[in-house]
Amino acid sequence: MSRTYYIFSSGRLKREHNTLCLENEAGRRVIPVEDVEQIYFFGETEFNSRLLDFLAHKGITAHVFNHFGYYTGSFIPRASLLSGFLLVRQVEHYLCPDKRLVLARSFVEGAIHNIRRNLEKRGLEEVCMALDNYRHALKKASSIEEIMSTEAHARKHYYSAWEKITGWEFGERTRQPPQNALNALISFGNAMTYTTVLKEIYKTALNPTISYLHEPSERRFSLALDIAEVFKPVLVDKIIFRLINQKQLTLDHFNRDLNATYLSEEGRKIFVREFEVQVESTILHRVLRRKVKYKSLIRLDLYKLIKHLLGEETFTPMKVWW
Q1: N or C: the chain end with fewer CB closer than 10 Å?
Q2: Where does Mn(2+) bind (predicted)?
Q3: Residue 218 pLDDT level (bands cut at 50, 70, 90)
Q4: How far apart (Å, rounded) are the C-alpha atoms in residues 271 and 242?
Q5: Is 266 known as a binding-site position?
């Protein structure tokens, strides 16, 4: 069964016959290519176009993070699943304001539902009530700008509870660069979720550059941003709460300079290990009546989106029921 490989050490990754070989100061590590679904590079790894051609031929995606743990980009093989008809329908739903609003509203509705579930049973009734109000206001939103504004205000209320949940300083959401440990964790985790969603999109005939909540633009796969909104509360926020409350992560796992805070290599390893456990964990699906992996929930949402675009059923995002 294919899996995800995380490379933290510096070195050189190359093709060796019909497999992959990582060379560094520790020696040589052979990685059977049949076992690889995607690769994350966190160290200063060297590779050439011959390797990229090999990865493309094998359908392997690669995601690159810099020395500070900031996501810099992904290598996506040429699409193997193409559907001109689906592409036309994707574009139609973007160009039609009413159709686009339906999808944009659905993504935010799912996100607000899931972040509210993270707060339940924590004695945060006031914040939960505010989220309920935003979810009600969402139904009346008549533009993408209103929907985005509602989502931003909902998350601001959500983040206002994080200091109480974690006991760590938060303040406000800062991104480029993160100004404290919690912001660094959120940014790193969100990048992990974005790349996970991107990999799942690649396994479908959807075009990752055509989106509905986020504006399509150059140099990013904006549909992955749309879908990630629904899953960040499940794949990122819960992990952050768990790692901090169980003291698996401490402030000693972060590096700071004058302008930014970022996870140390050991901190990234701890988070990635927990993230891998989370996406590979299973849950009994209430509709399918069988156990599915968390990462499979992403694929199921993508299939529901395809059916919506084709007019077969109305899209409903994954909403935490457990």
Answers
A1: N
A2: 151, 214, 229
A3: low
A4: 10
A5: no
d(CA 142, CA 139): 8
Copy the structure tokens of residue 65. 């993070």
67 is in an annotated binding site: no
Is 93 labelled a binding residue?
A: no
Distance (Å, whole) CA 86 – CA 194? 22
pLDDT, tens only, 64-83: 998 888 899 999 888 767 78
pLDDT at 158: 97
Which residues, other chains included, contact 91 with Cβ-Cβ below 8 Å and sequence gap of 6+?
A: 210
Q: Which two tokens stand for residue 214?
A: 């986020």
CA distance 66 to 38: 17
- As a whole number of angstroms, the distance between CA 244 and CA 166 comes to 6
Over range 291-309, report the average pLDDT. Answer: 97
Q: Give the span between the Cα atoms of 99 and 213, in whole angstroms.
A: 11
Domains contained in the chain, CATH given? 3-75 (3.100.10.20), 84-309 (1.20.120.920)
Q: Are 274 and 238 in contact (CB under 8 A)?
A: no
Residues composing the chain: 322
Residue 281 · residue 74 · CB < 8 Å = no
**In what side-by-side order are the strands of the sheet with 45-46?**
27-31, 19-24, 11-16, 45-46
